Amino acid sequence: MSPDALEPVAGPTTRRLGRSRARARGRGRGRGLVTVVLLVLTGCTSTHSSPPEQGTVVDLLQQDWRHVPGVVADDDGLRVGTTARSIVRQDGSGGQPDPPVDLAGTHLVAPDDFTVRASFADVTADATLAVYDAPPVIADEFRLEPAGVHLTVRGDDLGITVFDGSAPEDATDPRPVVDEHVTTSGPEAELSVRRAGDLLEVTSDGETVASMPLGDVFGSGELWWGLSSDEGSFAVDSFSAAAPAGAELSTAGPAAAGEGRSSDGLQALAARSRPDFVIGAAVALGPLASDPAYAREFVGDFGGLTVENAMKPQAISPRQGEYLFDEADALLDLAESQGMAVHGHTIAFSEAMPRWMQELPVDTEADRRASADVLLDYVTTVVSHFRGRLDSLDVVNEPFDVDQGTELQQNVWYQVFGPTYPVVVSQAVHDADPDVRQFVNENGADVPGPRQDALLQLALDTNAAGGHVDGVGLQAHVYDLDTDALSADDLAETFDAFEDAGLLVRISENDVTDDEGQDAQAEQYATVLAACLRSETCVSYTTWGVDDRYDWFADDDGRPQQGHDLLFDDGAPTPAYDAMRRALAD
Hints:
Elements lengths: L19 H6 L7 E9 L12 E6 L11 E4 L2 E5 L4 E2 L8 E2 L9 E3 L4 E8 L5 E6 L4 E2 L4 E2 L3 E7 L2 E7 L14 E6 L6 E7 L2 E6 L2 E7 L8 E7 L4 E12 L5 E3 L13 H8 L4 E6 L1 H6 L1 H10 L2 E4 L5 H4 L9 H12 L3 E9 L5 H4 L6 H21 L6 E6 L14 H6 L3 H12 L4 E6 L7 H15 L4 E6 L2 E2 L9 H13 L3 E9 L5 H17 L3 E6 L8 E3 L5 E3 L5 E2 L2 E2 L1 H11 L1
Parallel strand pairs: 1-15, 21-22, 21-29, 22-23, 23-24, 24-25, 25-26, 26-28, 27-28, 28-29
Antiparallel strand pairs: 1-8, 2-19, 3-4, 4-19, 5-6, 7-18, 7-20, 8-19, 9-12, 9-18, 10-11, 12-13, 13-14, 15-16, 16-17, 30-31, 32-33
């Protein structure tokens, strides 16, 4: 679908329309309203077609909105505010918008015709309704936008944006296939979007202002909702879904809610020889909510949940002093319902920081004192919120330089507190939750050598100065089997060194490339897990993801690429999974 597939039915694309119908309608609440209607009507081609006979109706306001950032439900409906969520690149630049989606609440199963209506009121700046046929995929540095339609009201301007779900050329800059604007009569205009067979129509006050082919939009048979504002707030007075008589329409909750632990899964096998040993995975809420295969894989096989991105600073506190715990809480709710251990990730980190945190003043002593108060307030607020719900936590993540050296990165934590900042962070975490086990997590320290020595010494020095570090996380990323492969002997020596120092070890982010073939990948996975199981100081093993379907990275040109590094691929176990099972059985 090309941008010029959006064509006006008559006259120019931008039009000013009358408001008589909206004025005559009235709502009895003394405030201007915008009504957004999304209609899917099979076989309807007239620009003034009548809606089909109504069958099933679902009041979406009465569904679960507890875990949607920026959305608060009350007796009158929903109040939507700006979240300022964005995804910052590793170098601290950028900031791709990450508007919220209702993941842990209700979505619709709608393989047939359907209607969705939402009435907006009190629009202070802008209001957006996004309708997706799948949740977005969130990677470390970018968001892959799913197929869907976004309607944005700003004064008398209506923005119509359509994505077709294809991977963008620049991972951080997804381009819609349609991005057009029409002029309406203001916030009192009634807006609608209709699907007529394979045609998508946008109308205002009953007049069609744009028409385009649907392409791949709304092809999944499911619908997910996003409500957001870039700069202000708005109310949602009504929000409902309906299907014509004879069409299927039903509500569904998160896919993971219906899953249970397998008696023959990876965690169950591990517990037979080491009852306290945890087999975990890093997970995101989107696939857990939307993908039954992913949910079955994770809940069935794993006993530990690492919060992949939802507890990083940029996700939890996009603006200074404001906190969005909604999605992390939803993940913890799931883990608790399944009896899983939760590992929090992360507090002090050089990356994934919101702009306000990166730009805290550090030039003078007074600046540093003020910034210290801000950072410590952040630590206390976050850890106190999760107190009693986390088994363990990365209090410091990737402290050393990115070129695999042994110098501390001079991030904002270093600039404010100095080189002993891990002591300050560890003490603050302990004050907020004395029972959570604290870890320092690092890459490239999996084998004996200077970087591992530096990590061990950092943990010991932190504790000697009053910190409370229980152990280290060894990430065990194997991006290249020629240079990154981990041997059983090196791992045994590594575990012995940390055990002698009185420190615990987590294999915290293991993933293995399949560039040398799946057999070599499987052998490496089994080697790491078996070595960890043999050492009493290695208390848990976590793989950095579950299914390759959600394993995405940006190549050197910024293009998104799908990895093949995990235990499942598109819902099916890989040879690495079978090798892990054999290692656990042995």
